[in-house]
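Worked example

This section walks through a single chain of length 728. The input is the sequence exactly as stored; nothing has been trimmed or padded.
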Amino acid sequence: MTCGSAVGVACLAAVLTIPTIIGAHDARTQARELYPAKHGNVLYQELSDPYGSRPLRRTFFARTGAGPVPLPPGIEALPRPGEAVVSPELRDLLAANPGVAGLVPGRVTGTIAPTGLGGPDDLYAYIGTTADKLTDPQRLGRVGAPVVLHELLDPETLDILRFTLGCIVLLPLVIFLSVCARLSGESRARRLAALRLVGLSSKDTVRVNAGESVAAAFLGALLGLAGYLGVNEVMAAVGLPGLRWYPADGRPEWTTVAVCLLGCPALAWVVGVYSARRAALSPIAVRRTAERRPPRRFGTLLLVPGLGVIAGYCAMSLLGHDPSGGSASSVLVPTAVLLTGAGLVLGLAPVTAWLARRLAEASGSLPVTLAMRRTEVDPGSSLRVVTGLVLLVFGASLTQGVLVELDQVSRRTAPLQEYAIGLGDVSPAQRKELAAVSGVDTAFVTYRSLESSGEVFEPSLEIVVATCEQLAATTGWVRGCRPDRVMRLRDTNTSFESDPQPGDRFAFAVGDGSRNAFLTVPEDRIDVRAYQPSAVESGALLVPPSRLPRGLAASAGTLTLVSAADAETVRRVLDGVGAVVPTAEVEAVGIAVEALAQLRVVRGLLGAGMVLGLVVGVAAFVVSVADRALERRGQVAALGLLGARGGTLRVVQVVQVVVPLGVGLGGAVVAGWLAESSYLITGGGAVHWDWAGLPLLVGSAVGVLVVAGVASVPMVRRHVDPEHIRRD
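Given that input, the structure is written out below as tokens.
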């Protein structure tokens, strides 16, 4: 019981410390935020670019006068022109990948201290330059923001993470600690009944059991906290996928210590009092092994509202209705998930007892009959064995839903990737270099017409300066494109705000500002299918380079590069673009780099949560099976005296585990997949039914069932010990 409490408290401390790690990261990033002012002797420009799925943030400084300047935390002085101060992670990245050096122009003269970084894996750089090289400078006013601007996880995602971790770790953890507190329940009940029969009062009998449980749980809590502190030092150096932290960030706060040192013994006290009531109130029945009461069925009723809400949302989706976006679903779905999980746990005993009775009546096999009659008499012991694994599979389905939902809003699914760069930020020579960057398949320019200055809204026009070959390389398919002709683009698969008609004229600014150039919408039309979002919009004009008016203003133009969408190519192109124009802002179209970074963090934390849940579930299973084997030694001895073979006893043991576990896992797969679907439906994403994740869920349940059955075999010994033979 002490070892079990130590494992449980270590897992509990790990889960409760996650918000502390995130809070420490956000506090340091908040302290380094720069705020502009009207007056100052330093200009700065901040850039954020995706490096793969991680954000790379660079701040360029240019002094315009003498005098003191506010310093960001973690550096002793602003870098001079041609110098750079980088984070340790970025320093190692520059050393390992010389091609990335273009992103940080200048000589690296130092590293940023931990006080100026969110975490050890932060990609951050302060770069010194001159004022003429900044494209959008601001004057530096102060350092430090009143609110967090670049949080590790936004509040909504953090709430989802807390709820999911609660389902996959905390719920099985409570079951596990309860199992540990009820170790050797039958033999303990007989001992307590003996104390009661020799004169100990009911209250004192209950206190004896509760006191023993609390003492063991408190010692386990101390060992668990000590073990977590050691694991934190190791994990801080290794990190999780998408998240690394400093050792001090992962040390538990006093509130976490109090919860661990008081919560675990308190749970042990409650379980100890509850488990000793029968021995204290009916000691004769305990000593004589009287018939047990059938399990109560009210727990099964929790499945009715839980599955009712979940199935209702699934039915609405099948009927073509979209229930997403409402405030009611944000309350109903989590509540339904909790009710369903509780119903699976509390309803497992009566359902198992009913099924065991039916199987025993229909079976002609002696091992199956023995196993089912034992399960029918005492379904609660089966409940302790399988509950942790059932909740683990149920929580795994919720984890899949969270990852699918987050992946929808952060990742571009098209086979091509576009990169948009303001045409005014690059020179003609740099345009040629960008088009030749490794990984870039093609490049074209777009211009937007002048906006109306009056109160009456007038539509604008986008022109795409490209050839038919470039258009075909950027879209899914093209029909009707004629070389050297200005033509309208029409994509019937997308909606468009403006629909220019043939004959409409649009004005475009010329670079010197003395006049405007005009383009007339032609009759000719091209049918295209573009990968949205894209610079190729329905309603735009395709203008061959030879037909483009001369001298259009670069401020109204955008250079678009196109490459393959795999992660390695995207990273290579971004590195090459940074080497050519390090101070230009690059937009990777369709990639939400902040969301991708958050997704990596969530995946890492949920992966750690699944590992903790697996440890807790397997530990609960092992403890419960071993405990049941010890409690059933007397029954096994009696069956052995009656002539039962060793194979028969092993089959009985396996069936007693596999049947209730199969019932629970089957319910967990069905209820979990419906709960996942209801979450996806109310989330508003494009994916409502995670068919791809269903085989994985079913395969995991079957794997758990097989492993549990095999692990139950060695728990039975046919050796008859005379001390286990009782007169009754």
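What to look for: The two ends are 30 Å apart (CA to CA).
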